[in-house]
Amino acid sequence: xxxxxMVWSEMVRRPGPSAAALVVVAFxxxxxxxxxxxxxxxxxxVAGQMRTLGANVLVLPAETxxxxxxxxxxxxxSLPEEYASRITMAQLKGVEELSPRLSVECELDESSVVLTGxxxxxxxxxxxxxxxxxxxxxxxxxxxxxxxxxxxxxxCCGRTCQLTTxxxxxxASYAKTRxxxxxxxxxxxxxxxxxxxxxxxxxxxVRLLGADFRVAGVLPRTGTVDDARLLGHLHRVQEVSDSxxxxxxxxxxxxxxxxxxxxxxxxxxxLPGARVVTIANLVEAQVTVxxxxxxxxxxxxxxxxxxxxASVASVMFANVSERRRELGTLMALGATPSTVGRMVxxxxxxxxxxxxxxxxxxxxxxxxxVGLRYLGFTxxxxxxxxxxxxxxxxxxxxxxxxxxxxxAARLDPCTCLQEL
Amino acid sequence: xxxxxxxxxxxxQGGAVVHALRSTTLDLRGGDFVAxxxxxxxxxxxxxxxxxxxxxxxxxxxxxxxxxVYEIGVAERARVRNERIGxxxxxxxxxxxxxxxxxxxxPLRLYGGSRAERRGRALELLEHFxxxxxxxxxxxxxxxxxxxxxxxxxxxxxxxTLVLADEPTGNLDPASRNLVLQTLTDFRDDDxxxxxxxxxxxxSRAADRILTISDGLLEESKAASEIGLAxxxx
Lengths: 420, 234
Ligand SMILES: Nc1ncnc2c1ncn2[C@@H]1O[C@H](COP(=O)(O)OP(=O)(O)OP(=O)(O)O)[C@@H](O)[C@H]1O
Ligand SMILES: [Mg+2]
Hints:
The structure holds two protein chains of two kinds. By secondary structure, chain A is α+β, with helices and mostly antiparallel strands. Chain A has two domains: 2-48 and 289-418, no CATH class; 63-272, no CATH class. Chain A is built from 17 helices and eleven strands. In chain A, the strands form two sheets. Chain A has a nine-stranded mixed sheet with strand order 6-7-5-8-4-3-10-1-11. The longest helix of chain A has 39 residues, at 284-322. Chain B starts with a strand and ends with a helix. Chain B is an alpha/beta fold. Helix content of chain B is 35%, strand content 27%. Chain B has eight helices and ten strands. In chain B, the strands form two sheets. A six-stranded mixed sheet of chain B has the order 6-7-8-3-9-10. Chain B has a four-stranded antiparallel sheet with strand order 2-1-4-5. In chain B, a hairpin with a 2-residue loop joins strand 4 (59-64) and strand 5. At the A-B interface, helix 1, helix 14 and helix 15 of A face helix 1, helix 2 and helix 3 of B. The structure holds adenosine-5'-triphosphate and magnesium ion. Residues 44-45, 166 of chain B line the site of magnesium ion.
């Protein structure tokens, strides 16, 4: 503290020599913080988009094009339902949940709605278990309690595997998982918009495609096309629509976005007749930009380290040689060499921290402004980035001042006896 | 108080050996006021540096108040300088960005101590030197004479037992010079020895013992007045 007081007043009263280094460090930190903030926020946005969709890989009929990924399953083309079992049995790494879906148009009270057939999770597991010895010997409860579908499930960071069985059973979690746990063949679940429009609360009977269904419940609002749909049992929907054992899409919830990439290749190999698309493809442009931003931020990091370090080092060298007499006098008056060396390092560290304060502020504000003006979303600066900025600036400053500090510590106090 | 026992300082430069200080034995006691005179390059500053625990001699022992100052660690030696030795420099060596008051406080600040006490001592000395209205000034805002008085206050603030002054009047006008000499005389006491290096015979007359040094060889001079007379004649 005693030393810091001296270092601080020297800097404040003689700001000239330090200003240049301060500016370099501040700009370095600002650039780093701004780019990292934009990259992180835009990444979060992509992740948010994926979450809305619920799945991160879609298996589609080969003929489809992917126009609107929110309605990717209502295109009239189909693929065999058996593909879903194949995926299950292949035990692909990173598959957390599967949802085969068949959507058909139908009339409800003279308006047109989409009835989507899904396979209840409960039944799906039972079916898989019958077909696969592997799955049969595995403890079925492990699926229930969070193991998920794929057994090679290491590093799972998905959403559904973190839910308890109770949560999975509850309709309320549908918005999170898009998984229907239980649904019997004569029941439908209605989306939030449909329920509102037709006044469903559960318990009513609806007639769809010439068959009667009981409304088993209302789905929570998901913000997706499901809100305007009715969900029925896949096999019943196949029957009433005369579709045969087909589906329009198999939604695959991969463990992690990172795993989705590998998964696509595996799925393509497994199902040569299908088209496999990741959500990442859909937001590819954005992902590419993110990649560029990340690389740019590494470059800026290197620039900060090199330029910031060089400028701190040169300022400190100049400072030490300029203050030779002053530091020598301090030694003559009783300062130890290590005290003088510490003063130099402390000064550099103060420069680093002051530069980081300015830089973090500048970087966060400019990232926010850029987001608002050009990107159309709010860019925030997470604490981790602030810490990185501070840590880097401080470390660079201290390392860069090491040699000047040693030089200062080796000054000969006798120099202050020499004439100017 | 301080003794040099066969102290030597050699510098080796490009094969040539410079004997900055030849075997020197010297004893100083409290109350001594010694002037050292000699031509340029004769080793005066070297002698002061060795006395001042700043320059390790090539041979011999330097004992200050029972401590052999070059046989202790660097940090301890620094502390000895801080607490027992006061330097007065020809060009004052005030810290340019500190005020007069802060400069005077500086030696006390290096080893902590209460702020109130060091402030009090510094102010007292500055007042003594007639600088009460200059405490907030930077050295660049003070005249040479005022700067040297600030430096004297800084030297005395730690109440050193040994005061070493290297040409303290070299950059001063006669009035300031006399004031500095008067101060050194005033502040000598039974527990304090003063060593004053000078070219100026008028200055050396203030001392009561004069040593001459030439080519690194230190010799007790005759009476102070004789040196003075000799110089005046020359
Ligand atoms: N660091 C050093 N390296 C080499 N030689 C030195 C060094 N310091 C002093 N000397 C030499 O030692 C001798 C004595 O130097 P010193 O500074 O003690 O002389 P001085 O009597 O103080 O001279 P002046 O009156 O000019 O200040 C000189 O010859 C000088 O060149
Ligand atoms: Mg000299």
